[in-house]
Amino acid sequence: MPRENRKRGKKHKKPAAEPDVAQEQVSFEQPEAAEAGPSWIIQKPEDTAEMDPEAPFGYLDADVKAYFRTVDVQMRQWQDGSADIEEGALTRVAEEKRAFFVAALTEMNEKEKQLATDPDCSLILERVVHSMDDFARRVFADRLAGSYEVLSKHRFASHVIQTLINVAGETVTRETKGNFPAESPSELLTMTELLLDISDELIPSLSILLNDAFASHIVRAILSLLAGLPSTMPSNTHSKKSKQWKDRQGEMRNLFETDNKIEQPVVPPSFGEKAVTAIRMCRKSLSANEVRACAASKVACPSLDVLIVVEAITGLSNEPGSLMDSVTTGIVADILSGKSLPAEPSSYIATLLKDTTSSHLLETVLTYAPQPVFDALWATHLCPNGAAGKLAVHPVSNYVLARAVPRANEAQLESLGRSWWSKAVKAGRMGVVKAVVDRAAELKQGAEGLWASVKGAFGVGEDHKSEEAINCVLCLKTLEDFRATEIHEPNVQGALLLQSLLRLPDPHNAELIEDILGLPLPSLKSLAHHPVSSRILDVLLDAESVPKKAKTRFVMAWLGHYHELVDDRIGSRVGERCWKWCDTYTKEKIARSVMDQEQALAASFYGKYFARGLNLYLLRKKPYEWRDFVARNVEAAKPIRSRRRW
Fold it and tell me: Most exposed among 212, 241, 429, 471, judged by the fewest C-beta atoms under 10 Å?
């Protein structure tokens, strides 16, 4: 049909097919197949209402969240000092703080778990926990009882739990010393008892929490507190990324107390027993292969680090099947059983040496390992057949070797050799070299020719000037590179190496001292005016290994030039150290040498403080009284530094 003759009519839908009622009835009436087993067993109905992992205890009302935001703003103003406080109103403001804080705690009642799991309010709750007194902390910890495992695995609540455990160390310390709140209900557990209950709740699932991204730092915090470890341990601190985020949230401290920070908690003996229980439970639940897998995990490795420290402190490391035995691939068990150690080094430990995450764990093992285990690791992995050069210049393993050197004896120190020092200079990794120098100074053995070896590593011979040798080491450049560049900036590693060389016993540091004292005065002044290189001169004056004669030569070298030395922010500090070290006779020489420059010192921003301590007016008018004044009042003769602006 042509298109123009077509007519569009109303479309009619086809009638839906009638359902087969008989078939439906058959399918409905068909009984379910009986499961195997006794007929009296009734299957548990499936729980259709699953728990929300983001809010396992429910969500907060919008009004409550808005209230706690105002609490956060007000507490930040008080903590940052941005709130305006009129003079004479300190008492009133303190009462307002107390009333405001009590109101916030009242509003928080029965909402602790929801606040802890809320993305916005969890940080506010951390700020509130820092300002709680001992009684409030106990109430808060008691309200969370039974939910610590769930909260530890939560993204936001885990930080609240970690903060609570950290501040609980202060409360436990006071309770251990017998300081309890005046009014405390008898039915409320002490913080010591609450932490033991928290440990009982977390220890059975320790192997699971160890590998959880959010709960692993809870394991570190609770184990450190149980063992009485300081809260500033590297493994117990926040990661760099987490710390940067925390810094952006403002300072968190107690609103009502200023100096209540306790670095080393004092814990009762029951905590040590609970730490031993945790170690044994971890050994039981983890096989040796699982422990080694944790060492390679970025999540579990820091917690395993703390476990090994606690194991060593409690005296459980030197046992077959210990965590340290698992990490060292059975070296502990072989030594205890008298077996000969394998000739070939373990490939697993070789991997730990060069892994950015696991190398920290190996540093802890080398620090706390029993002496026979340390000797075995040194002979088979760190310095096999005297070949330590590759590890010493490796970007990761050099830190492990530098951590092990402080435990080395004289023979082990000698086995390291010095042929690889030039490679370390070119690579800019002087940590092991500095550790060798420090260990030689501590043992007072093996220090022969260290300064000559350091100069040889930098390509400086005996025929070169002493100024070039010191500048090459200070700038951490070989002689060839030093001469090829025009800008020479002192390096921190080079300055630390020179300080360690100055601490060597006499006469092994005599050559370096002569090189420093032989510098021209302009070069010496440039060292004194730089914040990095000036520390070398501080050690020259403070180190007991430097002879008194050398210190006197250094102080007297500045006579007639002290006004130039102290006319600088850093140089004025060096001048004050020189003045502090001198006896009365030398101090009079210094004071008389700057009399002609008194006006210049008075006009100098930094020199005027140095001149004020000399008391030149009294010296000019009554020299005998000045000498008696200096001899009797050494503290009063020090330059005034309280008004200095660094």
Answer: 241
pLDDT value, residue 641: 44
What pLDDT is stored for residue 39 in this prediction?
Answer: 54
Mean pLDDT estimate for the chain: 85
**Could you tell me the CA-to-CA distances from 298 to 213, 294, 358, 360, 605 in Å, in that order?**
9, 8, 8, 11, 51
**Is the CA virtual torsion 400, 406, 407, 408 positive or negative?**
positive
Q: What is the pLDDT of residue 48?
A: 40
Nearest-angstrom CA–CA distance, 389 and 418? 9
Q: Would you say residue 29 has pLDDT above 70?
A: no
Per-residue pLDDT, averaged over 260-264, amounts to 68
**How close are the terminal C-alpha atoms of the chain, in Å?**
100
Contacts of residue 548, Cβ cutoff 8 Å, sequence gap at least 6 = none
Predicted TM-score (pTM) of this structure: 0.81
Q: For residues 200 and 215, give the distance between their C-alpha atoms in angstroms, rounded to a whole number.
A: 15
Q: Which of 530, 534, 522, 588 is nearest to 561 (CA)?
A: 522
CA distances (Å), 81 to each of 69, 77, 84, 85, 139, in order?
18, 6, 8, 9, 29
Verify cis geometry, omega within 30 degrees of 0, for the bond prior to 19: no
Cα(564)–Cα(542) distance, rounded to whole angstroms? 22
Torsion sign over Cα 406, 410, 416, 418 = positive
Token code pair at residue 60: 């907060």
Mean pLDDT check: name the lowest of 83-97, 270-284, 309-323: 83-97
**Cβ-contact 153, 214 below 8 angstroms:** yes
Residues 6+ apart with CB under 8 A from 80: 250, 251
DSSP 448-503: TTHHHHHHHHTT--TTS-HHHHHHHHHHT--HHHHHH-S-----HHHHHHHHHHHT
H or E segment and range at residue 301? helix 301-313
321-358 per-residue burial string, b: 16 or more CB within 10 A, e: under 16 = ebbbbbbbbbbbbbbeeeeeeeeebbeebeebbbbebb
460's torsion region: left (phi>0), alpha (psi -120 to 50) or beta?
A: beta
pLDDT bin (cut points 50, 70, 90) of residue 179 is: confident
The reported pLDDT for the residue numbered 23 is 44
Tokens 């030197």 belong to residue: 318
Tokens 């320790």 — which residue?
206
**Angle subtended at Cα 457 by Cα 456 and Cα 460, rounded to the nearest 5 degrees:** 45
Q: Please give the pLDDT value at position 3.
A: 56
Assess contact for 203 and 293: CB atoms under 8 A: no
What's the pLDDT score for residue 642?
39
Tokens of 568: 């600088």
CA–CA gap between residue 562 and residue 53 (Å, rounded): 69
pLDDT at 393 over 60: yes
- CB 283, CB 208: distance < 8 Å: no
